[in-house]
Amino acid sequence: MDDLPTDYTEHNLPLVLLSGLGDEDVVGGDGGGLPRQGSGTKLVIQTPECEGERARHLLQQFVNRDGSLLAWNSNALPGPTGTLRFRMQAIGRDYTLPPRKAAPLAQSPSTEKPINRSRSPSKSAELHSPLSPLSPGSPIFPDGVFTPLWLAKHQRQIPAVFVAFFDIKADDKPASDDQIKTDINAVRAAISRSGFKTRFAAVLLSDKSILHAADLEDRLASIRRVTNLDSKTSLFFMPPVSSQSEMGAFVQGVLSALQPSVIEYYRDLTKHARRKKTRGSIPLTATAPASQSLSNVGWNVRYEMKQGVFAEFRQEMDVAERHYSQAIEDLFNPEGIFETTPSWSPRWDEARLLCDALALRVIRCQLWNNLTTGAAQSWSNYRLRMKDLVDRRGKGSQTYGWEAWESRWAKVMAELTRRADLPALRNQTKQSLDDISESAGLGTFAAPEKSLSTTERLPPFTLLHHAGYWLRLAINGTRSRWQRALTIPAEDRSSPDGSPASAVAKRSRAYDTYLVPPPHKEFPLPEKQGIDHVTIITELSEHAIREFSGKGQNRMSEQTKLDAGRDLVNAGRFGEAMTYLLPLWENCSWRSDDWHSLYGELLSELHRCARHTGNAGLVLKVTWELLGAGPASQQNENLDIIRCIDDMSDGTAALSVQCKDREILSPITASFAFTNKQGFVGEPLGCQLTLISKAHQDTGSLALSKVELVIDTVKRIVIFHDGEKSPDQVNRLRLENAGDVFKTATNLALMPHERRVFNLALTLREAQAVRLQEAVLVLTTDKFDLRHSFASESLLQTPIWQFEYDGELVPSSLNRDESTTVEVLPKPPKIQVLLHGLHQQHYVGEQVRLQVELVNGEADRANGTIRQRVVAQDDIVLPSKWMRAGNIENDDQLVAADDAVEQKVEKFQPSQVMKLDLIVDAPTEPIAHTLTFDVDYTLASEPSTPLRKTLVVELAYATLFEAKFNFGPLVHSEPWPSYFDPALLSASDDEPSGIPQRWRLGSQITSVASEDIHIKGAEIVIDRIANDATFKVLESSENKDQVLAPIAKTEKSFQILTQKFSLDDRRPTILELSLAVSWARDADSATNTTRVTVPRLNMPSSEPRVLCVAAVSEQDTSDILLQYYLENPSTHFLTFVVTLEANDDFAFSGPKHRTLSLAPFSRHLITYNLLVHGNREEIKLADGQGRWIWPVLQVLDSYFQKSLRVLAAGPGVRVDPQRGLGVWVPAPKA
């Protein structure tokens, strides 16, 4: 926008004059831009200026709120929405307003006939604005439309608000305020006389607050009354403040209070302009004929422009846009200035300038209101409209002047986009790590408005892009301007001073010089200085590159750099071109992205620069790349890499050039592959090198001097060029050991697009992972030594192995990703480790015995060791040990080895078999274990080469048994101890003296194995018992061998005797037991023991209980003898009420109901004889066994009123949870 007048392009803000806080030169404010006119109204204040630190800080707070440099959007100013921006200007105590009316014409006697005598004297004497087309002194008199001086007057000379600052001290007398009152009234009167409607405000700065100086309030009221100022909108009092934030809040409050009056001021000006427009008649002037006056359409343009500017002052941008758009339509009106004014007239160019300014302001208003798509469309539509106008009414669009306008219009849009600082075009921070979209954080273009996005699909060029896009259009316009300037004939490039008038007239008709110099200055003869188009292009390119780079559009940035470098090369400025092309060549993405067309152009331009600047090394590198990546036009030059720097060499030392992959493209590519992904020490390892020429057809043969291969720490492989050998497609090379390198030779000449394959055999002596580190192509002459290295794995990798068949190369897939890596393994061990006795499933408690058989498959004697280790998943080591085995017949012949983990293997002859037994202890938990065998040995012929044979097996342990337990009391037949027994008093502490108790522990064992298990027996194992009682297990149920099938069950029962050491010990006895089950896999295998934990047993010793036993009666009068034992092991006398309920299944003899008192440590037996109802034959069940009857005996503690539960304490009696105690009545024997 620099080519347009600043007053036309800047955003209009209300001007606020600050009087009394310092001069503008001190503050650095805007100087006004226009010379003050002496005929204007002068505003003078006699009161001294406010001085001190507070005045300077206050002025700085006002200046900080100047909106001139803020972004052109509604959100740039801090504060609430709708806050008005201002342009602050600090002045002294004197200021002169511009004259509102032009000075009248001088009246002098004249013999000439007066013009327009018929015109009325009032009309002839009417005065107008100095800038009006009706004023003879105006620059646009008589038919001009508009001048930027009008905008400068309202923006820089006529304030919207005049703010005067006065010091008012609390210690001064009230009479000292008279000067303040006088100055305020004088300034207001002067403003009123000037004819302007500028608002006035006064700010009184006090050194004390009203609370500390009581008379201040009366003084302020007096000033307000005399000056007739409103304390809310035009008279402000500022007490001392303690911080900058408080001062800033005061300033913001003053501006907020002034905002309504400022808006009203510009609305009054708008109404005045609207009234003039609605008059409908053309204003006339006494000094110009009507035919030369401005047309009605022209006056409408002026009024629309004024209303739009006043709306912009109010920051009503939608209203301003409407007026600006209407002004443009009036200019393009068939009766408008463009159609009625000849294009050679200066007024036509003035109208173009005004129209450009109006279009600029329309776009700015749209961007202000976030109408981004509308702004882009307005820019494009105006461009097409102006081009059509220039083609019809102007000098055409095929001139350098039009191309300059195209560039200028694009620069205007770039500057508008940049100054608008739209949120849609800002670089945004990604909201989350999941957002991987590049466009999520880079504002490259603005989305269309909601009203457009849902109605139609817009092409991309109608969307608003960032400034770099428009700058690139400006660059293209300037480049076209340069190209058209180059076509200016020599006769038009000379100064018009020495040219004939006809030539000058022809030149003026042929060239459009709107805002551009004439052709003799645009592109003068060589001896004169003209427009430096290339410099303009480079400056625009710098700005565009920054924009594209900031938006992450690196390819556009690179393209712009290439275009700028090409323009500099075409201009012969090779040194400057190198500053663009060389960094681009070093870092551009076209090389890796295979954009050969653009990259070839870059190489061509860089090659020209390098040759003109004498950079031989760069010439060599670029020529090397041009062989394969250059454009076809460059290949026609027959680039010769061998002689490319002959004319640049100084003839001394040969030039050494290092090239690396990814940095420079090579015309010959290399790929490498090992035959297999694994090899062994000492065995030949096949590898294949493939060279492919990518040179163009016109380059001829290219012979490398040598190829070097670097494979990790192994010796280098060097393949030399031998021109006498045949250049076969597939070459089998034999490596020769020459000290530090392996050498071989073959023909390394390649024709364009030729593929050569070289097969090698490499023998490695160390076990390690080997990788091709680097492949180097070397080209050496007497002038230079060029080395191109390929170190990137991705460039050297190849997925195929190639072999020759019938004269053609046939690819074969390698079936692996990394072809340049091979794992060299140690020499494979040939000792075999065989295991015998390993089962698919092992069980907890099972000791595993394995026979390990070693077979020496080597051809030589071996010496070493074998190690074993059994580890669980959580690194728990399971104990194990070796047992030597010879001709083992039974376990007694096993002898423990010297080391439980390691065994020596000495003098192990070829084909010999060695056997060892390994015993792995039984685990206690069902956890999988890993058994590892490592045989480390060496051969007698190669003692320095260690070999290892490893065997890893899994030992899966599972639970063998699941068990259910039931626990209950039994009747103990021995008598109870008594306190009256003298033996109890004489008993020692080591002998138990408590009440003996008998218990029954039953178990039901279920096999969860997958095979038959031989049960050998079961026994109770004490895990823990308290020290206050004795524990004894009586003879268990019969232990006999039993085969238990999967999911089968077996029962084992045990009787337990317990007795407290002291009769006074009332605590319960706690037992922790395990059931140890002895089992074997079959009848002949070893016996294992698996322990099943019994739930903790809690046996009370001081609670009363009722035990029941039953037996078959031997009397003829009864069938069942039923006995109840009532026990009182406590130290209290207990009374029980005993009742046996009648039952339909039997009759009984015995006490039906009785009361029984039991002394401490006593028990009582109650016997019942039961006679089962019915014939004895009728009690047989279907299986002939018998049946259950359910007698109910109620035992009630008469004191606590609690019933005692009857417990089964012998065979033939059981307790059912629902029915109570049951008695088994067996069937009579046959």
Describe this structure in words.
This protein is α+β, with helices and mostly antiparallel strands and 1230 residues long. 27% of the residues lie in helices and 29% in strands. It contains 27 helices and 56 strands. A hairpin with a 4-residue loop joins strand 13 (706-711) and strand 14 (716-721). Helix 19 runs antiparallel to helix 20 (554-570) and helix 21 (574-587) crosses helix 23 (596-613). The radius of gyration is 57 Å and the shape is flat.
Give me a quick take on this structure.
The protein is of the alpha+beta class and 1230 residues long. Among the domains are: 395-530, no CATH class; 553-652, Serine Threonine Protein Phosphatase 5, Tetratricopeptide repeat; 655-825, Immunoglobulins (Immunoglobulin-like); 831-952, Immunoglobulin-like (Sandwich); 961-1099, Immunoglobulin-like (Sandwich), CATH 2.60.40; 1105-1226, Immunoglobulin-like, CATH 2.60.40.10.
Give the overall silhouette. flat
Q: Please, what is the CATH homologous superfamily of one domain?
A: Immunoglobulins
- What is the CATH level 1 assignment of one domain? Mainly Beta
Number of strands: 56
H/I helix tally: 27
CATH topology of one domain: Immunoglobulin-like
> Could you estimate the helical fraction of the residues in percent?
25-40%
- CATH arch. level architecture of one domain: Sandwich
How is the biggest beta sheet arranged? 9 strands, mixed
Beta-strand share of residues: 25-35%
- Contiguous runs where pLDDT drops below 50 for at least 5 residues: 25-37, 110-124, 430-440, 886-898
InterPro entries: Gryzun, TPC11
